[in-house]
Amino acid sequence: MSEMAIVCVDDELSILKSLEIELIEAFEDRYIYEFAETANEALEIIDELEREGTRIFIIVSDWLMPGIKGDELLIRVHNKYPQIIKIMLTGQADEESIERVIKEANLYRCLTKPWNNEELVSTIENAQINTN
Length: 132
Hints:
Elements: E1 4-9, H1 13-27, E2 32-36, H2 39-52, E3 55-61, H3 70-80, E4 85-90, H4 95-105, E5 109-112, H5 117-131
Parallel strand pairs: 1-2, 1-3, 3-4, 4-5
């Protein structure tokens, strides 16, 4: 089992299931995969993984979610764990929110829904190359 994790956050369970299938198909057991339906759940998962000594490699977050939106989540994650690579996966984020995450959370990439699986996989692979 890997000591690096990918955390996916989306309020739609079907999106999380699709991400799970695609990531496991592409990367098999290279990473630990965690999935959250809310920003608060994601923050709890990230803190728990960090306490256990698991390095979170990437967080993939939707933008439009109830409660805390994805831009705010990614900024909070960046402030606490700046080494985590941030990807926003959305069909509805406005330019202002995207710009804010780029500036305040060092957003690595913004992918639009419906996403292209090859683009998501290559984004993660390129992020891996760029962090080594």
